[in-house]
């Protein structure tokens, strides 16, 4: 499959602190990459640089062969570069159906009209239903956000991202704050994401990482110190030193 997305030599400093150092990474259609690393390694900064929330000091972001480095976040979203955030940003009195419908309408430039007029629009409703069904949210489609489980709220964030028709989706800790009883729900939903979508996920839950990822990239002190198969990551000496030591140890003694 051909390359969909690439960053090259991405570098960012805050004052004297280099938080992203010469990061290069490529993604193809259907990729499933986990970006892991210790707290403060620069994972969220990397996502902010990729999606345009931050401008790099050096380096390039290329989507579908186009250099988007100087474009703002909204322009990148329109081209298919979409993210979710670590902390949910939902309206507690609105339903999942309303959130996703509004996003579809927003994408189509029709959100300024009254939402209820579109409840009968079968094209929009069909797309909303597909998204909610992909994420296992149909049964709560018409409940208020504040009444649904936190794991379902996190999935709704992904639903909103899907309504923007991403080609590359960056998930910033989709399981953060979700009780372990609900992680299977997240895992199943991630498995059902569209096959052609390229997904990069930041996550601290290593079981989820190893089930989801076909490739793992490890960031430490702003630098990618390893890219490879999940089966190789735990054996890599640099990774063990930087991050996985405790986890590898925990697994080997488990
Ligand atoms: N706007 C900023 N100004 C100054 N320093 C910043 C800024 N944003 C992030 N940093 C610093 O950059 C480093 C990387 O932060 P970042 O949030 O990207 O790490 P992370 O790997 O996502 O961490 P976590 O896993 O805890 O979310 C940290 O030392 C952080 O304090």
From TrEMBL:
User: Where does the source fall among the domains of life?
Assistant: Bacteria
* A molecular-function term among this protein's GO annotations: ATP binding
SMART domains assigned to the protein according to its UniProt record, in alphabetical order: AAA
For this protein, the record's Pfam families field holds: ABC_tran, BCA_ABC_TP_C
For this protein, the record's PROSITE patterns field holds:
ABC_TRANSPORTER_1 (PS00211), ABC_TRANSPORTER_2 (PS50893)
Query: Sorted alphabetically, which CDD domains does this protein's record hold?
Result: ABC_Mj1267_LivG_branched
The name of this protein is ATP-binding cassette domain-containing protein
Q: Which organism is it from?
A: Microvirga arsenatis
Output the lineage of the source organism.
Answer: Bacteria, Pseudomonadati, Pseudomonadota, Alphaproteobacteria, Hyphomicrobiales
